[in-house]
Amino acid sequence: MAPFYFFIYAGVGVSTPFLPLWLRGLGFSYGSIGMLAAISAITGALTQLSLGSLSDRFQRRKPFVVGACLGLAAIFAVYPRAHGFGQFAVLYALFGFCSFTANTLASAMVMDLAESDRVARVFARTRSWGSIGFLITTTVLSIIPILGDLSRLFPSACAFNLLAALAAGLAREGTPGRNTTPVRLREGVALLGRPGVLALLVSGGLFWGCLQASTGSLSLLIKSLGGDRSTVSRAFLVAVVAEIPLMWVMGRLSDRIGRRPVLVLASLALPVRLYLYSLAGAAVWVLPIQAFHGLTFSIAAVVPMAFMSDIAPARLRASGQGLLNAVYAGASAVGPLAAGHLSDRVGLSGMYAYLGGAALFAACLTLIGVPETRQGTLSVQGLLPRRLRPLAGPLCRLLDGRMVTAKEPGRP
Known about the structure:
Layout: H1 2-15, H2 19-25, H3 30-58, H4 62-78, H5 84-113, H6 119-143, H7 153-170, H8 185-190, H9 197-216, H10 218-224, H11 229-257, H12 259-279, H13 286-289, H14 293-300, H15 303-311, H16 317-369, H17 393-400
């Protein structure tokens, strides 16, 4: 599945950063562009649990992933010919459906193939190829500017998604847990009653919304601080460069010491990152702050997926991933919209400060409500030198948290 992630995020790299510019060139207002992004995310939020349950019912992932990639390729082929808000609203809704479906079922497909004690590291290693694909395409575009109109990017995005469909079609498909009874949608919803799931979804949704809001406003912050387009490109490159190795490290670490300590680390790093943005006095200050992307996005893109894989029976694995991605999609819609309204009222620096407060609240929810789901992990205290272990005992116990039984006895 590594080639799938490489190609689909290479398509993101040549399209998503430039779609707003394309729409602005057609005369769309900032508000209309934001509304289209919200339509895309809300469509993903409303469909992912149902798609995950459907995949579990048929015990197949590959047809959903391949079909979603083909849908994305078709959407990019149509984009240059679309006109008017109504046509773009339909395209953005279809884009949200296909994009989130591809990611939801691809993550389930990877976890079907992973050994139970290596879920996070396998998913992190595979998912990181998406970051590599994004890094390569954005770097090439920053070095070799595209001449002419932006519509020349759409054929490239179409081709990358066709290659992603081919890669997913050639990938080996694992065997989910055997379903002795048909999987129903209400079983996916019932996952909310499992220990820690609701706390993870609430804190993770708030975390993801703040993260998406901050990323979406970053270019505006850099411009307000006197930065130019090259500074914006460098800021995103710093983030992706930090993201790739830390995704590997954090995935492996969460398999070793558990999901909770790593999630706590990310939840504490995000408010620090956001508050530093609010204090930035020059565009160049943003570049080192972007290194925090490795401790925030890299963990949020991998460890919650592994948490849901731990907590859900194998026969409901895609339902669990769909539930998580539905929350992420909703947060992707609400976060940027809230950030836009805050920026109008208190300015960009004030908006980042408010986001930092919301992220700090999410960190408190993680500390209070998210338990440990990995069985047989090394404690955080066990990683420290022997002389420091007694002194750090209370803090380590807070990070380790309570353990829950991830799978019900007798279930696959």
